[in-house]
Amino acid sequence: MATEKEYKELFDRVAALRGQVANKLAGELTVNPQLADALIRQIDDMLEGVETAERAKPSAPDGGLGQLVGIGPQAATALGQTSLPRGVESYDENVASERILAVGDLYYLYQHERIGVFRVVHKLQELFQGGAIRLSDGTGAYGLYRFDRRDVLRYTKKDRIGAYRRILGYGKGAGSANSRPNTDFHRLFVHLNNQIALFWRDKRISDVIRARAYDPSFGSIAVVRRAGLDLRNNLKFTSYGHLNVLRVEVMQLLEEAFKILNAEDVKDLFGAANGWDVVDEVLIRYFDERLVTSPRQRMGVTGRQVLRWLAGPHVLESTRAEFETLLLEAAEPAEEWITSAQSLRVADRTEVERVLPWDQHRPVGVATPTTKPAYSRRGGLGVYKGSGLATTNGHQR
Predict the structure, then answer these.
(1) 384 and 236 in one domain?
(2) Are residue 193 and residue 213 in the same domain, yes or no?
(3) Which of 83, 126, 354, 375 could pair covalently with 381 via S-S, beta carbons 3.0-4.6 A apart?
(4) Residue 378 sits in which domain range?
């Protein structure tokens, strides 16, 4: 373990090295700002290597306390001779990728549940069993017969709704096994998508205004990283339990449902070209619903893509060029998700609020309790009331 004097001298030498490099290469750095990123990254990597090597060294049995207080043969005669630890492991370094990937699949399933895919199949099954539709012995008819024969082996609809409530915060009541609903998910997910979209919008504007623009004010990596880490830390504690098994089983159920909907005898029954046309026809004819199939399906697809990006280590990348390259994977899905969510009135584009308050009961810029309308019941969100939040349909902003 390094001493306090060695610790101070190391950072003094690193600071001197940075200053010397910046002084000698000032002209080139003005013309080629990317060079500064590369140099800073190399120096940071060298410093990180030294700190990693220091942490690997064994520490004194008493942790250096004897040196510090002057007890024993190794007692320090000056503060600079005492051992100084480098710190502990960073909180945000570990990525539980398999659990965040599972949340992405669950979000995809939730949107299909809200569209009504499973309700449509159950309605077709009810009509088939009652002899109310002209199905007999085709592929779709046989699939409808077998669809609920394995219910005893599957998670029920109640289990699915409880999982959506516990992990995503959507729905009403308590989560599965009376757990606490994750009511922060929607608010954090909207914020992350907004910050990714704003980052790329700012970058495009800077590229148009100035050739080879490289101004940190045009797209802040730190804001996107903070939004991503907030959401990832939120999901870290809500994605335990039976999530992995449940999403595998329900994904299989969704595939089985679409095999029925895409069967030729079922499509011929409604004059449909594909399974989605069957879903729309049944929802209109038997449930008298206004269709939200397209925006919700795109929310499921693009939302899952953003969560898959978050499952990787990309959010911790510190070099601007590499971060922008890795973020491109989530840029267009985030923009499309916001557009689809806006059409359903379940999200807004934010242009000013770059950071969400950690304490949701203290809105930024609000000194006195007020009542702020959020979204209509049709959109699934409620209203802010003073320092609290009233919700409808289990969503939260």
Answers:
(1) no
(2) yes
(3) 375
(4) 359-397
